[in-house]
Amino acid sequence: MTLLRLGTLAWPVGRPAGIEGYAARLDAFVAEAAGRADLLLMPEYAPMEIVGGEADAAAELRAMVGIAPAVVEAMRAIARRHGVWMVPGSLPMEAGGRVVNRAPLIAPDGRLAFQDKRIMTRFEAESWGVSAGAGPVVFGTPWGTIGLSICYDAEFPKHVRAQVEAGAWLVLVPACTDSLHGYNRVRLSAQARALENQCVVAVAPTVGLAPWSASLDENHGAASVHGPVDRGFPADGVLAAGAMDAPGWVFCPLDPGAIERVRREGAVLNHRDWPKGPVEPPALAVLA
After folding, report:
1. What is the largest CA-CA distance in the chain?
2. Any residues with CB less than 8 A from the CB of 29 and at least 6 apart, and which?
3. What global pTM score does this model have?
4. Rounded to an integer, what distance in angstroms lies between the CA atom of residue 58 and that of residue 66?
């Protein structure tokens, strides 16, 4: 199978002038990476920077939902211009009278499909009123089947496992975390998902302080790519990682065949040995 050159971006939150300003920033980031990567990953809620400066986070959400279709069209135009596959982050969109957090995977010809966020954080559910979207899907690419699990979804084994069982060897995680606690939850979860599924998990965060934005006021994280903790991979499973809170691209070549080999010949076979049915309820052990 073809070698994949992956780029994952720690997106520095900015203050662009409308959709055009955001599109110019996105275009510049993609232009920087297009010659070095085939598939680009950007963070959850990165486009929310467009609406920074509204009265409060709820007003920013409403403003973003209103312009979301135009933002997606700008994303598609940039993918076509540079001839790359990309996940340009996620954004809140209207779906059947509800608001969901939705990430597009866009092909070089502008075709796209979406992955919704399924499990909401407290802020999304309690402050924004963002609803759970559709369940996990997988995407066919020139490098095989891949999945997308948006931020909090990656903290739950079943979401990623469903994608892996549908054929995904790579899972992309666009993230937006406003504290070191949040960043570490996503990072540790990505490492755990890569270990237990013997797959690759890549994370792209927002970074930087943006006091003008009620939604993206504080952002912490590091771009990273994680693999199995087994033969043919680093001892800690970390394939590539940027510095903490450092904006910019992290590039990582990935061989889908290496995942096939470790699932077949690893020192352990986590992917194969995943419990096939429910685990029995624990009985109370009797000390004797």
Report:
1. 72
2. 9, 11, 42, 249
3. 0.96
4. 13
> Which pair of tokens denotes residue 112?
């796209």
CB 179 within 8 A of CB 185: no
Q: Which residues contact 124 (CB under 8 A, 6 or more apart)?
A: 101, 117, 130
Coil vs helix vs strand at 154: helix
Instruction: Give which of 147, 149, 151, 139 is closest to 185, Cα–Cα.
Output: 151
Residue type, 269: L
Determine if residue 21 is left, alpha or beta; phi over 0 gives left, psi from -120 to 50 gives alpha, anything else beta.
Answer: alpha
- In 3D, which of 156, 245, 253 has the Cα closest to residue 205? 245
Contact 251, 240 (CB under 8 A): yes
Note whether 247 and 240 are within 8 A (CB): no
Residue with tokens 């993230």: 175
Residuewise pLDDT in 10s, the chain (288 residues)? 689 999 999 999 999 999 999 999 999 999 999 999 999 999 999 999 999 988 899 999 999 999 999 999 999 999 999 999 999 999 999 999 999 999 999 999 999 999 999 999 999 999 999 999 999 999 999 999 999 999 999 999 999 999 999 999 999 999 999 999 999 999 999 999 999 999 999 999 999 999 999 999 999 999 999 999 999 999 999 999 999 999 999 999 999 999 999 999 999 999 999 998 888 999 999 999
31 Cβ partners below 8 Å, 6+ apart?
82
By the 8 A CB rule, do 219 and 177 touch? Answer: yes
For residues 91 and 13, give the distance between their C-alpha atoms in angstroms, rounded to a whole number. Answer: 14
Q: Are 175 and 203 in contact (CB under 8 A)?
A: yes
Three-state secondary-structure class, residue 139: strand
